[in-house]
Amino acid sequence: MRDLYIGSLLHDIGKIMYRAGDGRNHSVLGKEFLIKQEFNRRIADCANFHHARKLKGAQISDDSICYIVYYADNISASSDRRELEE
Fold it and tell me: Which of 22, 24, 28, 70 has the fewest beta carbons under 10 Å from its own?
């Protein structure tokens, strides 16, 4: 459960590096950062696989916490967009 909490909170950490001028994909940047900071692979995978295009081809277990982070991120993103439309 601890990995899920941390992975959820840090799944978009790569956006900081991306917005600071590193033009690479924020999911890859986040994964690399988390691994460099010695977070475990389950947490780093949450950053790497929180978008559908990366998750589709991922070779991760069916019970990976990445799926929970992916769905939560989508729910959060769509609720943000709905407010802008209204």
Answer: 24
pLDDT digits (tens, 9 = 90+) for 13-69: 999 999 999 989 999 999 999 999 999 999 999 999 999 988 888 999 999 999 999
CA-wise closest residue to 11 among 1, 19, 23, 3: 3
Q: How many residues does the chain have?
A: 86
Contact by Cβ (8 Å): 18, 47 = no
Between the CA of residue 32 and those of 10, 16, 83, 84, what are the distances in Å?
12, 13, 32, 32
Q: How far apart are CA 12 and CA 30, in angstroms?
A: 7
